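User: Modeling request: complex.
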Amino acid sequence: MGLIAGIEAGGTKFVAALASPDGRLLDRTRIATRAPAETFAELAEWFAATARRHGPIAAFGVASFGPLDLDPASPTHGSFTTTPKPGWSGANWHEALGQFGVPVAIDTDVNGAAMGEWMAGAGRGRRTVAYTTVGTGIGTGVVTDGRPLFGASHYEMGHVRPARPALDDGWHGNCPFHGDCLEGLVSGPAIIARWGTDLSQASEAQVMLVADYLAEFAASLALMHAPDVMIFGGGVFNTPGLLEALREKTRAKLAGYAAFYDRPLDDVIVAPALGDGAGITGAIALGRSILSNPSPPAKSR
Amino acid sequence: MGLIAGIEAGGTKFVAALASPDGRLLDRTRIATRAPAETFAELAEWFAATARRHGPIAAFGVASFGPLDLDPASPTHGSFTTTPKPGWSGANWHEALGQFGVPVAIDTDVNGAAMGEWMAGAGRGRRTVAYTTVGTGIGTGVVTDGRPLFGASHYEMGHVRPARPALDDGWHGNCPFHGDCLEGLVSGPAIIARWGTDLSQASEAQVMLVADYLAEFAASLALMHAPDVMIFGGGVFNTPGLLEALREKTRAKLAGYAAFYDRPLDDVIVAPALGDGAGITGAIALGRSILSNPSPPAKSR
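Assistant: Request completed. Predicted assembly structure:
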């Protein structure tokens, strides 16, 4: 059995890694994200050189920034759609890695992180793992029984509009599409736009308001996906007390209705365990899964 | 290969059916829902007699009212949990059908209906099918690639709190747990409690307000599950114009962000095609799926 290649693709850097069939890291590198042609070329060169040292690659797993076309029936599966990142719209992962002639599994960065945390982090041993990042943007990935979930496209949970404790709480939100969706209310940039400071410098009342919006979202996530663990990371969660407030408020909002969540949520609403490592671990897990289960979203072209 | 038994279990009646391995109906009956012992006994007798005529049963599929314990790891999998229906808490489907000694797949009524519509109705040929009923209660089932989805428990989407067009629109909601969750705002009983009439007798403005709440939910469903078809049924959808208003408002709320939904949603937000038949069709599909894919939620004890 050949080796597994993993790629965590972010807007500023890519992490590339080669792993043994059982997932053990053999080598890794970082590549700055530039135009697709240059970035993909450097990536392919590194994998080709590394494979010469360690052995042939059997599959790629990619956890990528987006938005991406992940419709298994689409002729442009694996391509970037309407990203504002210059040059990247239309760039295609299958083309980028086609020279290796092996299956390529592609998913979002948040599904990749959810896979990584499920394999080796805070989601280990759990059945349904939701991973939410609250930073520059907000996104959630969900893995059930080791399968990343998606529908007609990948999820876009950061744009759900939470019910608000009081409509007139002084802020219209700054999402250019939806105003007061979650991203327009509690992403890092939204918090700075509203209060002129990041949340770690904000008042207790401000932290509690952010926790309230996030708890509306976590309650919806519980009712709509029933994860047995909800992992919350990203820069905004560096705020002391936020995770604890989120636990209490989520339980209070569910009000005893969903039996699974009617208890202290210390082991249900948790921080990531892998930190920066979740994405690349998940990418490798995606690559491994395409070999054992060659169905969407792990897909070969 | 033996025959497939299907059971659609509702609070007032059960529908039981026997089908050929390819899903063709051979016989069916109705049984009034009474105490579990009586109801289960009549059900088992009917299946035993029908199997004597048509041939042996290879698997059961059950689409049942709830709430149910559907955690695959639970020792009480397949039992009713905290239902207010007298006598039913603790009743267990595996015990009820254990005498037949065949695999039993159990799921919720809404996942059953989603399976049925995916197999033979408005979800045919689609990848991710969400089925929502808005009637006495509100619930949503989701099927992806022919697999009903669930997490630590089945979904409880009727209790999601929609963002409201104006908080002070004159009604606190009547859900005993959450007040103004979706069920507390737009279930049949909530509408009657608020306006003293069902929605088909209500004013245009009232219908539009209900459509607005439902569109907040449909937008969340699109962002959180990305179904390629969202089926809306149940008594409240007998209201003329409601489905059309829901399409327009859902698209407007998504505001072009999710490319898949940025078009007239006539083929995305639709009425059920099977009417009353979705549940029993789905139950038979669940029974068939356990034979080809004996994994959760299709589970043998």
